[in-house]
Design a protein that fits this description.
alpha+beta, four-stranded mixed β-sheet, 3 helices
């Protein structure tokens, strides 16, 4: 399964198999989307460069989007 995330407008967008699933404004929302799509800790998640430059997409500081995704995947039960 190909899982892709990107930062846009202070949210994280989730795409699975090249289809947009939705956008989350909190790690808990993203965790729910991960769980609903059987995405669990240890699975490869591909990231857009917008994750690295998330301050250009409304996040407070560089690294915030990566932490957002990390927190979300850690919330998903294995």
């Amino acid at each position: 399964m190909f899982v892709f995330v990107d930062a846009k407008d202070s949210k994280i967008e989730l795409h699975v198999e090249q289809q947009r699933i939705g956008a989350a404004s909190t790690p808990a929302e993203l965790a729910l989307m991960f769980a609903a799509n059987n995405i669990t800790f240890g699975q490869s998640i591909h990231c857009s460069s917008s994750i690295d430059f998330c301050d250009e997409e409304g996040f407070a500081a560089p690294g915030d989007a990566a932490m957002f995704v990390t927190e979300a995947i850690e919330m998903v039960a294995v």
